[in-house]
């Protein structure tokens, strides 16, 4: 049994939530730079140059990359030998989010009741928390801050098994096309295939956490990711929807076994402001 | 890049062409979902609005909190279509232009043509850059809405594209 103070969790969550708002992950920045080189119209070029300049200003002047600093999503992989001490794990996570948003002057974008009152909670809590129990005595914490311009353009479909690979291609491309300028392209696209209705969506969100240069471990899925990326970039959405070649930076797929009668496909759209980080304690 | 002064008169609006990149300076007002809902209620109750709509420019933005010693926070556009149901009545009351991102509804386009207004698109996700164009900010209504309150901003050279011009030409239809 290994004891871990929940204070350590709070600290880690606060630190990561605070940092990801200001600095792009390296892989995203590299792909934006590459995209800018490939664009040939002045408008698409100009738009990507502003995004790159924005990245610089955000980092150097410590201003959030985007004003929508997102809803926090926290993923925990907890080793079964771990015993949390000195308080509530859930509360520690929420407190980490609360302090990061307050101390870093991020935007509080969460309302308490989704349907009726919609009153801002004024501290960006609660975060959405996913926990998984794994072997070992370590804790992995991954934090993401999800913007809703792109979240709103995400979709799920219960495809028929007979629709096969083509069904997935059609649905993913249609979702990207519909997202268009609303999702602040260039986008990053997470696809979840299999599981159940709800789990496919979780897989799609998980797919967004994988580094953009890392293709799926299984050859057939890796090829599908590449094909989807190539075809998405032929849709002529372009940076910020102003037409061009750089519409999608990467397509990441996660899959899971499913029922004989089904093939759920979820597409979680993220904008270029892909914010996530992780630590292992 | 052409420089445009806000508020924007009809005469100037008529010269703006879809796709053109322009730099906006002058006074604009922030308002997004919750503020639009309240404006619409005030109009229905015939109450005076917090700012003069005539030729005014509304920026669909919910900025981050302003840190001490800073003028403004991060401030890029939010998705305009969520404001679509409120927009035609504001345009009919004199609103001159809007700044946001993404598609507008056919009803909004019609109202834009009818009033010779204009819809600008700004760069989604470039909040740090765009926030730096704000030289003065003041909350003028609905402070309880926090980020969604109405703020009067003075901006210098805010870069935007003409998304829908006064003839209804749409950058996303090209
Ligand atoms: S979709 Fe992304 S880039 Fe666009 S406003 Fe939201 S967080 Fe910012």
Descriptive notes:
- The complex is a heterodimer of chains A (281) and B (174).
- Chain A is an alpha/beta fold and 281 residues long.
- In chain A, 38% of the residues lie in helices and 25% in strands.
- Chain A has 2 domains: 2-21 and 65-146, Dihydrodipicolinate Reductase, domain 2 (2-Layer Sandwich); 148-273.
- In chain A, the strands form 3 sheets. A 4-stranded mixed beta sheet of chain A has the order 4-2-5-10.
- With 174 residues, chain B is α/β, with parallel strands linked by helices.
- Chain B is 21% helix and 28% strand.
- Chain B is globular, with a radius of gyration of 15 Å.
- The two termini of chain B are 21 Å apart.
- The mean pLDDT of chain B is 95.
- Classes of the chains: A alpha/beta (281), B alpha/beta (174).
- At the A-B interface, helix 3 of A face helix 5 of B.
- The complex binds iron/sulfur cluster.
- Iron/sulfur cluster sits between chains A (66, 68, 147, 149-150, 183-184, 271, 273) and B (76, 124-125).
List SSEs of chain A in N-to-C order: EHHHEEHEEHEHEHHEEE
- Assembly form of the protein: heterodimer
- Ligand inventory: iron/sulfur cluster
The largest sheet of chain A has its strands arranged as 4-2-5-10
CATH class of chain B: Alpha Beta
What is the string of helix and strand elements of chain B?
Answer: EHEHEHEHEHEE
For the largest beta-sheet of chain B, the strand count, sense and barrel status come to:
5 strands, mixed, barrel
The N- and C-terminal alpha carbons of chain B lie at a distance of 21 Å
Strand content of chain B: 25-35%
Largest two-chain interface: A-B, 40 and 41 residues
């Amino acid at each position: 049994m290994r004891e871990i103070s929940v204070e350590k969790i709070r600290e880690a969550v606060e630190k990561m939530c605070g940092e990801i708002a200001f600095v792009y992950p390296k892989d995203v920045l590299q792909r934006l730079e590459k995209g800018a080189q490939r664009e040939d119209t002045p408008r698409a070029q100009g738009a990507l140059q502003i995004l790159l300049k924005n990245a610089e200003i955000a980092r150097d002047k410590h201003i959030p990359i985007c004003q929508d600093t997102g809803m926090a999503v926290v993923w925990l992989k907890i080793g079964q030998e771990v015993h949390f001490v000195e308080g509530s794990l859930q509360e520690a996570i929420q407190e980490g989010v609360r302090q990061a948003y307050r101390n870093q002057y991020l935007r509080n974008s969460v309302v308490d009741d989704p349907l009726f009152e919609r009153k801002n909670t004024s501290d960006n809590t609660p975060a959405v928390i996913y926990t998984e129990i794994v072997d070992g005595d370590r804790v992995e914490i991954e934090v993401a801050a999800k913007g809703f311009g792109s979240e709103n353009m995400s979709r799920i479909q219960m495809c028929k098994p007979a629709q096969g690979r083509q069904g997935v291609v059609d649905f993913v491309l249609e979702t990207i096309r519909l997202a268009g300028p609303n999702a602040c392209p260039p986008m990053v696209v997470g696809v979840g295939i299999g599981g159940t209705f709800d789990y496919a969506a979780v897989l799609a969100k998980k797919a967004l956490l994988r580094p953009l240069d890392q293709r799926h471990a299984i050859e057939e899925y890796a090829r599908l990711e590449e094909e989807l990326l190539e075809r998405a970039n032929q849709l002529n959405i372009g940076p910020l929807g102003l037409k061009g070649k750089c519409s999608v930076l990467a397509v990441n797929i996660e899959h899971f076994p499913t029922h004989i009668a089904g093939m759920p496909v979820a597409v979680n759209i993220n904008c270029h402001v892909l914010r996530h980080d992780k630590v292992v304690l | 890049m052409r420089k445009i002064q806000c508020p924007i008169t009809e005469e100037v609006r008529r010269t703006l062409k879809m796709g053109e990149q322009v730099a906006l300076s002058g006074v604009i007002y922030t308002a997004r979902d919750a503020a639009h809902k309240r404006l619409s209620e005030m109009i229905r109750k015939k109450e005076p609005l917090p700012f003069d709509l005539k030729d005014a420019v509304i920026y669909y933005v919910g900025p981050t909190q302003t840190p001490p010693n800073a003028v403004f926070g991060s401030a890029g556009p939010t998705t305009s279509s969520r404001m679509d149901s409120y927009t035609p009545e504001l345009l009919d009351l004199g609103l001159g232009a809007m700044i946001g991102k993404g598609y507008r509804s056919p009803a909004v386009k019609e109202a834009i043509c009818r009033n010779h207004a204009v819809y600008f698109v700004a760069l989604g996700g470039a909040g740090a850059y765009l926030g730096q164009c704000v030289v003065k900010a003041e909350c003028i209504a609905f402070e309880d809405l926090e980020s969604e309150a109405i703020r009067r901003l003075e901006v210098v050279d805010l870069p935007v594209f003409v998304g829908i011009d006064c003839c209804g030409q749409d950058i996303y239809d090209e």
